[in-house]
Write a structure and sequence with these properties.
six-stranded antiparallel β-sheet; 6 helices; single chain; 286 residues; binds zinc ion; seven-stranded antiparallel β-sheet; globular; alpha+beta
Length: 286
């Protein structure tokens, strides 16, 4: 939110404001995922496992490189907060900020979820999204954002003075602690900013504040990912439910979400190889 300016615009202020923007990270040189191959791989894929995440909770799941997973809406509109970690090193985790810089504020089919430095490689590619029809609405809102962080007990405490333990941040910590067999404090270091699955969000036009509105997701909707490396996923069913009113409380109606894990058509999998970590030398000028 901007306060009333304390400084006068310079004489050429209007001219400066009229300079056209340029894209920070043009993606023309970004290696494009082979979506034709992925379509072939998913054609005959077989459901191998599923995990149901109860309301206001989180679960982890494992997906082998080259396999697919879906997040499926079950009984009612529900938002999910997704974390991704490399199976062999939890420090390699989803980097929502850089993914946003490359692909924009909201993700859909063809976009990739990039990992943190110094790894910086695609962890997953979105291969289907039943909500791709939504695009951007008149408020500038879209679905599946990488602009929010995750609801957490620290911000809740700051704003309301109350303690609430079933925010996505805490849900993901409990789930990862169980998965990795580590104390909560250790697991907390690995929990990171999320992909807000099914959440409908944007920035207000006047103050550019983060807003949410009722998710358009309905039972049967899903978003599907191709695992580019061996993954551990963490999915929290947000206490905000469809995020139409509030989160960080027990007020909203909440529903479970299902994760389905699929084995691909292995005959064509040999045409694909898992991406290498970044080739940057890490010399940083020394
Ligand atoms: Zn949440």
């Amino acid at each position: 939110m901007k306060r009333t300016p304390e400084n006068k615009a310079p004489l050429d202020g209007d001219t400066l404001k009229k300079i056209a923007p340029v894209i920070c990270y043009p993606t023309g040189t970004l290696p494009a995922p082979d979506m034709d191959l992925y379509r072939t791989l998913r054609n005959n894929m077989i459901l191998e496992d599923e995990v149901v995440v109860p309301p206001r909770d989180a679960k982890t799941f494992r997906v082998k490189a080259g396999w697919f997973f879906r997040i499926v809406s079950m009984d009612g509109p529900q938002v999910g907060d997704l974390n991704l970690w490399a199976q062999d090193d939890l420090w390699e985790r989803f980097y929502s900020g850089k993914t946003r810089a490359l692909h924009g504020t909201h993700l859909s089919t063809g976009d990739q979820m990039w990992s943190s430095f110094p790894f910086m490689r695609p962890m997953a590619t979105i291969t289907h999204d039943t909500l791709d029809w939504y695009g951007f609405d008149a408020y500038g809102a879209g679905v599946h954002d990488v602009i929010g962080t995750r609801c957490d007990p620290y911000t809740g405490k700051l704003l309301s003075g109350k303690e609430y333990h079933y925010c996505c941040h805490s849900n993901l910590i409990r789930a990862l602690a169980d998965e990795a067999g580590v104390p909560l404090a250790d697991a907390e270091r690995y929990v990171h900013d999320v992909l807000n699955v099914f959440m409908c969000t944007g920035f207000t036009r006047d103050t550019h504040q983060y807003f949410m509105k009722a998710s358009p997701v309905r039972p049967g909707d899903f978003i599907e990912f191709f695992a580019e490396i061996d993954l551990i996923g963490g999915l929290s069913t947000c206490p905000g439910g469809d995020c139409s009113s509030e989160h960080s409380s027990d007020a909203a109606e909440c529903y479970p979400l299902k994760v389905e894990i699929y084995k691909p058509d292995t005959r064509r999998l040999a045409e694909w190889s898992s991406p290498e970590r970044s080739g940057y030398s890490q010399s940083h000028g020394r």
